[in-house]
Design a protein that fits this description.
Length: 154
Amino acid sequence: MGPYTDILRQNSDQKSLKAVPFENKPELTQSDAEVLASAIVDSDYGENHILYKEGTKLSPALFLVRSGQVSVTNSSGLNKAVTQGGYFGNGTLGGDISLSFIAKRTFVAKEKCKVGVLKGGDISSVLHLARCDTLDLQGITKHKILGEGTFGQV
């Protein structure tokens, strides 16, 4: 792809990411969307490739379907399809997304498809989701004053 199509893809990814509900982050800022969009890595999958299977241990990630179709099933009888422009995996992004989780659904490429993958660690580093929840301000101790300015001591 050329530079023009890369810019179009980046803008499209930013819009898609702004539509995804991230837990603890009601709305993405433009700068967060730009950084996250640049971290998306495209992967090609063949027909009947299992992206992940119900009951297996996986790392959190967000998947954006670029082309093709991915089927979503589970043992409770769920049977849906995610097509171009759709996404899945956002349910894995709640809480501490640096940890692994057990898949609740099976995702299979029903035809040859291209999927953009945004890893949970990348999301966490940009949105600071895990760090905000675990930071204990009561445990911070002041060792020495570094300096003093207009707005107080540092």
